[in-house]
Amino acid sequence: MDSDFGIPRELSPLQQLRSQYQPELPPCLQGTTVRVELGDGTTVSEASDSHIIARAFPHTLGQPLAHFLRETAKVSDAHIITQLPSIRVGIVFCGRQAPGGHNVIWGLYEALKVHNAKSTLLGFLGGSEGLFAQKTLEITDDILQTYKNQGGYDLLGRTKDQIRTTEQVNAALKACIDLKLDGLVIIGGVTSNTDAAHLAEFFAEAKCSTKVVGVPVTTNGDLKNQFVEANVGFDTICKVNSQLISNACTDALSAEKYYYFIRLMGRKHSHVALECTLQSHPNMVILGEEVAASKLTIFDISKQICDAVQARAGQDKNHGVILIPEGIIESIPEVYALLKEIHGLLREGLLLHPESDDSAQLSQIETEKLLAYLVETEMNKRLKEGTYKGKKFNAICHFFGYQARGSLPSKFDCDYAYAMMTVKNWSQNAGSTSTSIGRPAIHPAMVDLKGKAYELLRQNADKFLMEDLYRNPGPLQYDGPGADAKAVSLCVEDQDYMGRIKKLQEYLDQVRTIVKPGCSQDVLKAALSVMASVTDVLTTISSSSNGGQQTA
Amino acid sequence: MDSDFGIPRELSPLQQLRSQYQPELPPCLQGTTVRVELGDGTTVSEASDSHIIARAFPHTLGQPLAHFLRETAKVSDAHIITQLPSIRVGIVFCGRQAPGGHNVIWGLYEALKVHNAKSTLLGFLGGSEGLFAQKTLEITDDILQTYKNQGGYDLLGRTKDQIRTTEQVNAALKACIDLKLDGLVIIGGVTSNTDAAHLAEFFAEAKCSTKVVGVPVTTNGDLKNQFVEANVGFDTICKVNSQLISNACTDALSAEKYYYFIRLMGRKHSHVALECTLQSHPNMVILGEEVAASKLTIFDISKQICDAVQARAGQDKNHGVILIPEGIIESIPEVYALLKEIHGLLREGLLLHPESDDSAQLSQIETEKLLAYLVETEMNKRLKEGTYKGKKFNAICHFFGYQARGSLPSKFDCDYAYAMMTVKNWSQNAGSTSTSIGRPAIHPAMVDLKGKAYELLRQNADKFLMEDLYRNPGPLQYDGPGADAKAVSLCVEDQDYMGRIKKLQEYLDQVRTIVKPGCSQDVLKAALSVMASVTDVLTTISSSSNGGQQTA
């Protein structure tokens, strides 16, 4: 197996072109000088968790945020680093592959070499197993040639996803010590970054000098918070899926006799489904977060679809496209229990694919087929009763996921992943850390039902349902219109969190300047009174709105 | 329903760009002057069928082939047409939608207007039902604006696919007479073009002056013969599917624990699967034509896959991608019968999608799941017995078809479809007409197991199987590398059939010039002797090789 890693391979003409693409670095990361401003320590998102988290992360919690500054930035107390010692860094793919993963390696390699040509980057072969067994491949420019801007994780491979048990963390520690690593970079999603946070704490406790860095690379888009606005891979996945959903929309509109029930990979939360809806405008989407918030049963959902089918038939429309996030099933407890039982019974059946392991379970539950069946049964009933007068209901079911995961990464993901190596130490400060059966873990971010992306969906949902405003973004392009398109949800959401934190600090500084010793009694009184009520208001809001902070 | 046809719609940036693309016409179709050379009448491919075909098509069989000539061509007896009267033409989408269909309408519209601005093009709304009911939409440049180079059939829609019963052909006749049509253009696949051929004969018999024209637009790529080298839509479908297959390959190689069983839409024959294999190099493909030729049972096929899995595991490869054409099931009679029975039994089951109608049956049979199950069972058995020592076998099943059909058409399909309107009267001369339960029908072309495309596959099959030479052509591009790529099978197959017919005629002319009255006895004797044996040889070959001619 290992002999195949890192070998050069033949690229198609498009792959060749892409391999020559040079991602652009943000200004603060260009050049050989690093300018860092250390900000405040961070707070936890839920005040009630702070004790548990403080106990779990005594060495790593509350570190200052590091801001990288562009050359022209005027910050008096910036740390300016012009010479870096040669360092040794290990990097490992953990968890499901996402487009752009290779660029994290490439970007890190270039950054290390730019600062000191003697620095070394070691790739662990075969995921965390390679880390435990110390199987490495030294990354060189030659090795990277046919992997730059390419999809998959096949440069290094990945297998098991966990670094959790005592045996595993000890093996990881031993590997870092044996290989004299200054840093260990873990590329992965929510689970892997939780592991990274715990590993960092474990290393600090063990006085191991290896810094652990988690890089949020996941197609689910659920590793979001105030500091991490997007995940590597999400943009590509949503574009590839939107292309396919749009094709199904065009197909539905041409044939005028099918309803497509399309289930989308994306784990528990519905970020992928929401983004794809905003990109391709199918008739309907049912978000897991909506189902949970409204406590809908499977029959509620099915009835909702049936009513939509009936309303559309009233306008002579006997086709449609409905998106179903794979995670929706977890939001309907009674169905989740039922399906588990059915799957058990059918495991010996002929046509049902057996589950491979626990983690694959969600993608194996064919919710779209169950819903299509329930809707068909109900529409046939309504047809007989005469309440529904449209064509016989016809569903075609799809599951989109695996076929998008291996895609060539979009320009956005190429650029984002390439610049990603600088997000250091973020995992333990990410804010959304919380408890989960005794062990604090990063919670995957939900779709924020109060957020702007969801608001955009709600504003258009009726029109999407009835008017077939299908939008076809087309296949992923690397040139011309659409090539530089960003995710809709990324564009509409409030993103400048850190900018606003800065603005607030400016206000506070201004007040401090105005109210210096020597100012008039009136000014001081006014300031005291106003600030007392400001503090009051914020304290009240903070304690009541914590639940909504997670995805702010 | 009808009110929505032809309405302008909002296009995505990429769609907008594409709508401004102007396909290029071949030189012979440029300008306002038409130069036509009428060639020989055609022969039928199977001599034994000639009587039946002659009886079915007394008015339309054996018409001369029309060659369109470029301005610079020197052909003394070319018909040169510089002025065309204004004409009225109807056009209808029949059969399953294929990318590029809209461009046939656009191309025809432009051609009509270039030759006479007063000509009229009427689109029938809702397929053949619209034809029978005379529901039309006059095509204008305004209407075409947002449909140029776009996928789907939604400009006019399509419903039922048949023009066959007495009632139907009479309704079609009445529509053409009532609407005073000079031509009726039927856009469709094998079935629709068979209908077109019969309709042309019926019209000629009825002394209706409407000319019937069939245009081969089908994603299956099975409407091929000496005169029709490719079908509109096939290029796009293969590119979109190849993108997805390649993504699955990358995914397999990254995760190293899955076997993907991917079934491809394409009807009875395996053109799509062959082309996708040549584009994306998955580990294995099982063509229906191979199965039929070798009389393989489902267990033979399953064993073949198991042996491959075992051989790969011997090289530490526990992943792979296997393509399965949907039509393979028809090549295994015992399984076809079995599955029909199982489907009947399971129709009341919870998770199996019921068949919508006879024509959808093939796409509803989940052959990939059956094969994955058989392979899994066998591999588990071998694992227990110790003959197989790899990882536990894990399959993920996919069906790719619907999600490709509605795609934006590739540049090739845009250009080809736009120029297509000139393929007149081809259907009844297409050569592969043959009998089918009393009614002559166009046979879908099989993959030619003696052809160059298949040879290319055989040459590489072992390497593809063992060496993971996955090739990722990437998403469909409209600019840069890959944008002008043609189907591999189209490039490697002998395509210049008409060119070679011309070359032969030149040889015959040369012999005639050399052996004119006045030539020497020796020359005449030599010529006679040689031509006698040439005639002999060709007669022998002709009567023995007819079976292989269909896809030549």
Automatic annotation (TrEMBL), chains A, B:
<dbReference type="InterPro" id="IPR035966">
    <property type="entry name" value="PKF_sf"/>
</dbReference>
<keyword id="KW-0460">Magnesium</keyword>
<protein>
    <recommendedName>
        <fullName>Phosphofructokinase domain-containing protein</fullName>
    </recommendedName>
</protein>
<dbReference type="Pfam" id="PF00365">
    <property type="entry name" value="PFK"/>
</dbReference>
<feature type="domain" description="Phosphofructokinase">
    <location>
        <begin position="88"/>
        <end position="420"/>
    </location>
</feature>
<dbReference type="InterPro" id="IPR000023">
    <property type="entry name" value="Phosphofructokinase_dom"/>
</dbReference>
<keyword id="KW-0479">Metal-binding</keyword>
<keyword id="KW-0808">Transferase</keyword>
<keyword id="KW-0963">Cytoplasm</keyword>
<keyword id="KW-0418">Kinase</keyword>
<keyword id="KW-0324">Glycolysis</keyword>
